Amino acid sequence: MAQALLSIQILPRLKAGDNDIIPYVDKAIDIIKASGVPYRVGPLETTMEGDLDRLLDIVKEMNAAMFSLGSPSVLSQIKLSVDAADGASMARLLQKYPDGQ
């Protein structure tokens, strides 16, 4: 499948009595880290780069992990860029902003 960029903001509904979303977000980011795909954490979403099928599998794994942590439902907001010709690339899109500014 084509090279893609996938940005995700995962929003699990917290189980009753739980007020801290950070452990859920940390688990989602741990799944991305363990996958080995290039990624960049931002303040509102995390962007991954790689084969589209692989990225979608990671999203499925992240959602499954939210349920295993006790979330009764999950909203995953996704932005997707697929470039079959040149391959989507964070480095290419950010080359003008090497320091993130």
UniProtKB/TrEMBL annotation:
Pfam families membership: Thiamine_BP
TM helices/strands, residue ranges: none
GO cellular component terms, semicolon-separated: cytosol
All residue ranges annotated as the Thiamine-binding protein domain in the record: 7-91
Similarity annotation: Belongs to the UPF0045 family.
Protein name, per record: Thiamine-binding protein
